[in-house]
Fold:
Amino acid sequence: MSKKFSLVMCVGAVGLSAGLSPAAAFERSYPVASSAAIYAGQPAPTQVAYAQRSNMGGGFIEFLFGDEQAQQRSYHAQPTYDRRPVYPPAPEQMTPEPIPQQTMYGRGYPMEAARPGFDPKYEKQLVEYHGKERAGTIVVDTPNKFLYLVQPGGTALRYGIGVGRPGFTWSGIKSITAKKEWPSWTPPADMLRRRPDLPRFMEGGPENPLGARAMYLGSSLYRIHGSNEPWTIGTNVSSGCIRMRNQDVIDLYERVHVGARVVVI
Structure:
């Protein structure tokens, strides 16, 4: 107790000799941080300061034995404390790390397989035609998935098509016996036996598998019709019908008439 009291008296004496009160002397030696409130359960705020040190040792010893100019430099070199308490962020305020795209689909969440795009080689185009069919005839090239509408002057309009699956392809000569816009669809009995899940009747419209237009071939159940599945053009996909993109079947529909000759090879 006597040693602590002697130290205090020494500080007070030096402070008075410099024209300062004992309280001011202690302020000069120990800058006091802000009295921010700290509540129970909260961590104490962290304060970090970097002071310039002279070659005399700094701190309380430098105050006692350094000159007044050095004391002023040391005092003013102290950085300003951030008076706000520093607490770690609450869990709900923390931003989660981004999830890599390839890990977003794990077990139980399979990524849907992307459908292939429409192959541009099946776009409608005018090509040379050196066959024997006259203008206005439709020629269906089943192996190469093309439909030709013969034009005058040795040319033809060529469209991409989808044809029958293995076991459902056919060949022959037919004629267009009827044309319908946005046709309804009644699956034939043999198709219903294979696919009992199909509806027994379906009104015409964008969701109808016959698409925007249909041209019926003779007395058969086969048609040249549109499709709302353009990615199937260029494939073996149907039960014998010739399918086209809706925009292509509309174009063909406007160019042909009932009675037109259809050659399927």
Notes: Confidence is low (pLDDT under 50) at residues 1-40, 48-65, 70-78, 97-112.
